[in-house]
Design goal:
Blueprint (H helix, E strand, L loop, with lengths): L11 E7 L3 H12 L6 E8 L5 H11 L3 E6 L4 H10 L5 E4 L5 E2 L3 H9 L5 E11 L5 E5 L17 E3 H6 L11 H9 L4 E13 L2 H5 L3 H15 L6 H11 L11 H17 L5 H11 L4 H8 L1
Parallel strand pairs: 1-2, 1-4, 2-3, 6-9
Antiparallel strand pairs: 4-8, 5-9, 6-7
């Protein structure tokens, strides 16, 4: 897993899925195209978008041959990533999420780390989390514990393509938590490195803030950690995979006023902890949705 190119293939394949992401799509694409490390291909899976995503992608593809577009009906993130990684030609695969930003040095610095140790199976970095208007909320830096909660963000990962394939890649059984499922299997084949720098910026969406799919995520995490200690030939292993395949979104979930209030409270508290006066806007939005939100009132007063 060195840095020698083979057959003029790119060193890194950046893989991203997008569904109706026109608002931030150009900003995200530009952050990859402006990397100081230039030897990559950028595979973007248009997962059935119905907005102007397709038009934007076509315009970028005309200008930069490194961009490769896959179009498919809307099937969700996991199947989009499977499709993208399947055609990846790079020696390494880097993830990127639409709406997020990779700082210019990200690919170069992660590549330097991953080639520094032939046993390295995954490289992550620090991630800044941003609010709806790009407000800084907080930073996460990597750590590994027994339950493997350490990768700062799915989009911050870079890993060897050969290990990805040896580990059987993303699995369609996991509509959610597909990243954790992959990381656990990659860790059996290599070590994790963390770049000390913060090289990724993730914009939090409403679903992430509110935890709409939290129960499904918790169930899948339990299944993934149980699978970790079993052999694939074990009948229980197959049974758990089947259970995972049954955990899917339960229809379209619109945020209730209470859930919306909790989202606004979370944003307000993060901004207040950063000394950003914009916190008051979010706390008042919280109270508009839930006039009895005591914590929001207290945060405004104290």
């Amino acid at each position: 897993m060195g840095n020698k190119k083979m057959n003029n293939r790119p060193v890194i394949s950046v893989v991203m899925s997008v569904y109706n992401g026109e608002k931030y799509l150009s900003e995200t694409i530009d952050s990859i195209l402006n990397q100081t490390f230039k030897d990559f291909e950028f595979i973007i899976v248009n997962d059935g978008s119905t907005d102007n995503t397709g038009v934007i992608l076509q315009e970028y593809a005309k200008k930069d041959p490194r961009i490769k577009i896959i179009r498919q009906e809307n099937q969700g993130l996991t199947k989009a990533l499977i499709a993208g990684c399947q055609i990846a030609q790079g020696e390494y695969i880097a993830r990127q999420d639409c709406g997020d930003i990779s700082k210019p040095e990200r690919l170069g610095k992660q590549f330097k780390y991953i080639i520094s140790d032939k046993e390295c199976g995954l490289v992550s970095c620090g991630t800044n989390f941003l609010g709806p208007e790009g407000e800084f909320l907080y930073t996460l830096n990597g750590k590994i514990n027994h339950d493997f909660d350490g990768i700062t963000h799915h989009g911050s990962a870079l890993f060897p393509a050969v290990l990805y394939r040896e580990a059987a890649g993303y699995r369609s059984e996991f509509y959610f938590a597909q990243d954790l499922d992959l990381w656990v299997r990659l860790l059996k084949k290599g070590k994790v490195y963390f770049c000390p720098e913060t090289l990724y910026e993730a914009r939090l969406g409403g679903d992430q803030i509110s935890g709409i799919n939290r129960n499904e995520q918790i169930l899948l995490k339990r299944i993934i950690l149980a699978l970790r200690d079993l052999e694939p030939s074990d009948p229980i292993y197959k049974s758990l995979l089947y259970k995972a395949s049954l955990i899917r979104p339960k229809g379209k979930r619109e945020a209730s006023k209470i859930r919306k209030a909790d989202q606004m409270y979370f944003l307000g508290r993060c901004l207040k902890s950063q000394g950003n006066s914009g916190y008051r806007h979010y706390l008042w939005e919280c109270i508009k949705n839930d006039p009895l939100h005591i914590k929001a009132w207290l945060s405004l007063i104290i």
